[in-house]
Amino acid sequence: MSELLTVEEHRARVLDAVTPLPVETVRLADAAGRTLAAPVRAAHDLPGFDNSSMDGFAVRLADVEGADAENPVALRVVADLPAGSSDDPSFGAGEAVRIMTGAPVPTHADAIVPFEDTAGGLADSLGTVEVRRAPAASGAFIRRRGGDTRTGDVVLTPGERLGPFAVAAAAAAGVADVEVRRRPRVAVVSTGSELVPPGVAPGRGQTPDSNSTLLAALVADADADVTVVSSLRDDADAIHALLAHAADVDVIVFSGGVSAGAYEPVRQALSERISFVKVAMQPGKPQAFGALDDGRLVFGLPGNPVSVAVSFEVFVRPALLALQGRAVIDRRIARLTASEDWTTPPGRRQYLPAAIDLVAGTVRPATAGGSGSHLAASLARAEAFAVIPADVSTVSAGDPLDVMLIP
Ligand code: AMP
Ligand code: MG
What we know:
Keywords: Magnesium, Metal-binding, Molybdenum, Molybdenum cofactor biosynthesis, Transferase. This protein is an alpha/beta fold. It is 17% helix and 31% strand.
């Protein structure tokens, strides 16, 4: 019981308990933030046809070879191709077709002359055009069919998060429905008889419940749905009632009530059903986790707000992403140089709320005066967590550090 688990050991127990949620098909318009469960393949070539990358004139290269300002070449303009036209006008030697960006290149053209390389503007060019600069080569300013992707090519792979770029890629590839994992449904539950709702002036002995707000925002940020938000008094019966109420969730995240004090309702209510452990980290040493018989995953995080934030990053967020089948469940790590000295607890890995300067490549504590895990308001200054190995006891300016980036 008093033995410390490493962060990796506890994390492995958490992730071992995760089974990805079922797959469902959603319209692309509803897919942003979801995790892909099957590859997205291009339904057609993209571009679907050779098209012009400039407003100008489709020409036969042989007609305009050698053209320059001193030796312009006049061509007769015999057709006009706006974007959206499906025409394929034929044209002969000494002729050209006016063409707009994105319009299909006529079969008999082998280059585009941008209108900037002709005399006169586009407006009065339906007659004769004077080419004042020859295209550099065959294919100049032509975007080739399939140059982006080809029919059947994998555009997006399972496990990818469908961010704005990804949903746009699916749309461009002609895909309207995608297979994704169901979003996890999550209950966030604060415990503590001292808690009052935000906006209520705390009396002596009371403190605002910031963890509910913190956890609800973190869960949403992990692309999961917060379906229950609750704040309970330190009373084991209230925990049992909550468990009955939140029957329809995949995950319950408690804050507070898991450590060794006299009033620890999560521990009292659940000590037979989930494990209560100590993890070699700071903050976040007391942790509770387990799967209930009905499959719901239960996290019990220590109540200090910074401990909640760190525990969420290290254990809960990876689990929520693994439930969605996400291929990458870890935050990005940057290697930055400490710009200040500070001490860290021996034998425990420190996750220090940090301010970073990505241009200078430096990291420093987000709050002067150390790493108090109760500094709920100062947490707002953190942009990252500096991760200090357990066997390090002092950080000195100039030391290289791994830093977990929180976007
Ligand atoms: P606990 O883990 O329950 O012993 O709580 C540790 C510390 O975190 C105590 O000072 C609590 O008042 C504080 N705390 C617990 N829950 C919350 C919460 N929801 N919001 C803000 N502070 C909290
Ligand atoms: Mg408490």
